[in-house]
């Protein structure tokens, strides 16, 4: 016959066994309970993004507006439906738009791709000017725009095409690199 003392010992041992089983089970993590975390998932995603770029003096230099902005990795931000305007204080009358843009954290340039268009009502030779290309690198603090791709340039009634270009947007100077062809109306 089991006595009270034996029954109490069995109950304590059973409680200890159940407790041990429960504790070891809760320490084991089921793979289905964990969420995999990839570093590409970190970052942000914005709609109607507005980025303000400042010059070395801390004053507003330009504004970049985009329909969407997404951080890619730790050092890049991608933008869609982009428009860049210099501030009135910079005295650079150019606006630039493109399908996409990319900014790298360690670089001072904006990479524009897809239907890139730079427009100024006070452009080269003081005429309405439009530059079109599929790829353009903008150095906002230096007021430079550069590409090695094909460009189409309209300056008033004149039009030019070339392969490659370097433009100083502040000084309204343009250097075409190669394959220059033009049409000049009187």
Comma- or semicolon-separated keywords:
single chain; 186 residues; mainly beta; lipopolysaccharide transport protein A fold; 9-stranded antiparallel β-sheet; 9 strands; elongated
Secondary structure layout:
Layout: H1 4-27, E1 45-54, E2 60-72, E3 76-86, E4 94-104, E5 110-120, E6 129-139, E7 144-155, E8 158-168, E9 173-183
Antiparallel strand pairs: 1-2, 2-3, 3-4, 4-5, 5-6, 6-7, 7-8, 8-9
Summary, kept brief:
The protein has 186 residues and is mainly β. The chain has one helix at residues 4-27; strands at 45-54, 60-72, 76-86, 94-104, 110-120, 129-139, 144-155, 158-168, 173-183.
Give your account of this protein's structure.
The chain is mainly β and about 190 residues long. It has a single domain (about 40-185), classed as Lipopolysaccharide (LPS) transport protein A like domain (lipopolysaccharide transport protein A fold, Sandwich), CATH 2.60.450.10. It is built from one helix and nine strands, in the order αβββββββββ. Strand 6 and strand 7 form a beta hairpin.
């Amino acid at each position: 016959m089991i006595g009270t003392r034996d029954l109490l010992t069995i109950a304590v041992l059973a409680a200890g066994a159940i407790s041990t089983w429960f504790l070891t089970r809760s320490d084991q993590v089921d793979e289905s309970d964990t969420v995999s975390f990839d570093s590409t998932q970190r970052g942000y995603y914005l709609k109607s993004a507005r980025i303000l770029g400042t010059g070395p003096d801390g004053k507003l230099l330009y504004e970049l507006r985009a329909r969407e902005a997404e951080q890619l990795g730790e050092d890049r931000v991608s933008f869609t439906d982009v428009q860049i305007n210099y501030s009135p204080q910079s005295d650079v009358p150019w606006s630039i738009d493109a399908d996409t843009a990319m900014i790298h954290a360690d670089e001072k340039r904006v990479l524009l791709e897809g239907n890139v268009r730079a427009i100024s009502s006070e452009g080269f030779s003081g005429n309405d000017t439009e530059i079109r290309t599929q790829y353009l690198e903008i150095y906002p603090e230096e007021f430079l725009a550069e590409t090695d791709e094909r460009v189409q340039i309209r300056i008033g009634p004149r039009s030019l095409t070339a392969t490659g270009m370097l433009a100083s947007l502040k000084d309204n100077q343009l250097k075409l690199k190669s394959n220059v062809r033009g049409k000049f109306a009187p």
